[in-house]
Design a protein that fits this description.
By secondary structure, the protein is of the alpha/beta class. The chain has a single domain, classed as 3-Layer(aba) Sandwich (Rossmann fold), CATH 3.40.50. 30% of the residues lie in helices and 28% in strands. The chain has 5 helices and 7 strands. A 7-stranded mixed sheet has the order 1-7-6-2-5-4-3, with helices on both faces. Strand 6 and strand 7 form a beta hairpin. It is globular, with a radius of gyration of 15 Å. The structure holds adenosine-5'-diphosphate and magnesium ion. The site of adenosine-5'-diphosphate has 17 residues, from helix 1 and helix 2. Adenosine-5'-diphosphate (ADP) binds next to helix 1 and helix 2.
């Protein structure tokens, strides 16, 4: 696990681009973004969107669960051809059954890249399924010593 210190929102955004450049986009990619409110999870997703060529404004989907964005990526494999980026915020999920009702698994399966804030709220079953079948990047965001400092622990696939 890599620990990275970010000293500004710009540094957090740069880190997102760096990670994106390193990962294998042939497989569906899921970012599990953990950590307290204000840690920088949404800042990170905005940078991912920008790096993927999303033109729309990315806003926090706390009340609507997720947003979907078209990216400039066209990944050849039929499953991922649409190049969709999904941004989930599961903060308001109290019971994983709520996700079952809306067809969470089917929705994320159609996307190319999925960013999930508050992944612990999806419950063990989905978490294990995602870790088994997708390319997972887990990042924990913590506050650092200074006001604009954030510590990010990055874990790739496992
Ligand atoms: N190094 C940093 N990285 C990311 N965000 C930072 C940093 N320093 C300060 N911030 C601020 O912290 C807040 C992070 O908010 P946000 O990304 O919405 O957090 P989360 O989605 O984790 O709740 C923003 O207001 C941002 O400007
Ligand atoms: Mg957020």
């Amino acid at each position: 696990m890599d620990k990275i210190i970010s000293r500004s929102t710009e540094e957090t955004a740069k880190l997102a681009g760096d990670i994106l450049n390193k990962i294998d986009l042939e497989k569906p990619v899921v970012f599990l973004l953990k950590g307290e409110l204000g840690g920088g999870k949404t800042v990170f997703v905005k940078a991912i969107a920008k790096a993927m060529g999303v033109k729309e404004r990315v806003t926090s989907p706390t009340f609507i669960l997720y947003n979907s964005y078209k990216t400039r990526f066209k990944i050849e494999d039929l499953r991922f051809k649409n190049g969709t980026l999904l941004h989930w915020d599961l903060y308001r999920i109290d019971d994983p059954k709520e996700l079952e009702t809306i067809g969470f698994w089917e929705i994320i399966n159609r996307a190319s890249i999925v960013c999930i804030e508050w992944p612990e709220r999806m419950g063990k079953k989905y978490l294990e399924k995602i870790k088994k079948e997708m390319n997972v990047i887990e990042i924990s965001f913590e506050y650092g010593k200074k006001i604009e400092e954030r510590v990010m622990s990055v874990k790739i696939n496992g």
